[in-house]
């Protein structure tokens, strides 16, 4: 009898493991299909975007330990940001930072939080703080120069930025001609 219980328990555990694995594979396949449909579509369908963002979040909630979870959340944040849902994008970037501190795109999450505060929400003070946090944590990252430039131009009108670029260009020419 004990042998039967052990065999039955092993069967249940292996079935459950297979079922879980099968579930995330099905969900991932469904997400891939949605991504492909969106890429080949001639128009941007906001309903499809909402559904895809929800699927990314659902996958990550259901399978938080799956290596695809932070990647899906990152994609969801990018879509949210691209569709003027800055607050949602920031929440998603923050959830990645908190739940997946060793994820390969953590520096980009910090940068994109700052970028979203600046460009989607217009919160220049918070953007400045976050760009500086990014630079403190990742001073040699490939986006560090972009963060420095963003800090330099925070709150400036397009006309002011053009004047500064023209001045920088003029200064460069003057140095070369000396």
CATH topology: Serine Threonine Protein Phosphatase 5, Tetratricopeptide repeat
**In percent, how helical is the residue content?**
over 70%
Overall mean confidence score, pLDDT:
84
> How many β strands by DSSP?
0
Q: Give the CATH level 1 class.
A: Mainly Alpha
Tell me the structural class: mainly alpha
CATH architecture: Alpha Horseshoe
Q: In the residues, how many domains can be counted?
A: 1
Rg to the nearest angstrom? 23 Å
The CATH superfamily turns out to be Tetratricopeptide repeat domain
Low-confidence stretches: 1-20
Counted by DSSP, the helix tally is 8
Can you walk me through this structure?
The chain has 178 residues and is mainly α. The protein has a single domain (44-177), classed as Serine Threonine Protein Phosphatase 5, Tetratricopeptide repeat. The chain has eight helices and no strands. The chain has helices at residues 2-40, 46-62, 68-82, 86-99, 106-119, 124-137, 144-153, 158-177. Helix 1 runs antiparallel to helix 2. The chain is elongated. Residues 1-20 have low confidence and may be disordered.
């Amino acid at each position: 009898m004990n042998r039967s219980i052990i065999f039955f328990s092993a069967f249940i555990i292996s079935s459950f493991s297979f079922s879980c694995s099968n579930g995330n594979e099905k969900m991932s396949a469904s997400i891939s299909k949605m991504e492909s449909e969106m890429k080949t579509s001639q128009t941007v369908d906001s309903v499809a975007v909402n559904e895809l963002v929800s699927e990314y979040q659902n996958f990550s909630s259901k399978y938080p330990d799956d290596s695809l979870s932070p990647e899906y959340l990152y994609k969801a944040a990018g879509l949210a940001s691209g569709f003027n849902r800055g607050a949602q994008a920031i929440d998603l970037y923050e959830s990645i930072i908190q739940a997946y501190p060793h994820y390969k795109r953590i520096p980009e999450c910090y940068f994109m939080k700052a970028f979203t505060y600046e460009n989607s929400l217009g919160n220049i003070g918070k953007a400045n703080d976050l760009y500086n946090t990014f630079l403190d944590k990742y001073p040699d990252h490939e986006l560090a120069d972009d963060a420095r430039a963003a800090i330099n131009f925070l709150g400036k009108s397009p006309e002011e930025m053009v004047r500064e670029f023209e001045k920088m260009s003029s200064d460069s020419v003057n140095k070369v001609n000396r």
